[in-house]
Specification:
By secondary structure, the chain is mainly beta. The protein folds into 2 domains: 47 residues, no CATH class; 64 residues, SH3 type barrels. The chain is built from 1 helix and 11 strands; from the N terminus they run E-E-E-E-E-E-E-E-E-E-H-E. The longest helix is centred in the C-terminal third of the chain and has 10 residues. The radius of gyration is 16 Å and the shape is globular.
Length: 129
């Protein structure tokens, strides 16, 4: 089974989020984009930016109620403030009381008529959200 993967991280130079593929070296992390540069040569060109390693998060493959991609490091729900974490090969939602598989949380919340919503990343302040 193939699954679409996407990562994000905050750029070292601007502090802004960048989305794409993750490239890691011994001491650095980069997010790379593949672009089709047909204006010069009929080949693919890779653009990459160094990102702050602690801000790197993987897309869970899920969307919130507004169609926003849910990433590792996101905070969901204003009341419970679930944090999306990656543990033992799976994505989980962790609150101060419990930990639940994120797909299971999404399913339970949908059945209850309370779909989940991304509030912000743990790496953003409330003003940046």
């Amino acid at each position: 089974m193939n699954r679409e993967t996407e990562y994000r991280g905050k750029r070292v130079d601007t502090g802004k989020w960048i989305y794409g593929s993750l490239i890691q070296s011994e001491n650095h992390s980069y997010i790379a984009l593949m672009v089709d540069d047909m204006s010069r040569l009929p080949k693919l060109t890779t653009l990459s930016w160094e990102v702050i390693p602690s801000t790197v998060g993987e897309w869970t493959g899920l969307l919130d109620k507004n169609g926003v991609k849910i990433f590792e490091g996101d905070i969901l729900d204003k009341k419970y403030r679930w944090e999306v974490v990656f543990i033992d090969g799976a994505f989980w939602a962790r609150s101060h009381r419990t930990v639940i598989n994120i797909a299971e949380l999404q399913k339970k919340r949908l059945l209850a008529g309370i779909p989940i919503e991304v509030i912000r990343s743990i790496h953003d302040t409330e003003e940046q959200a």
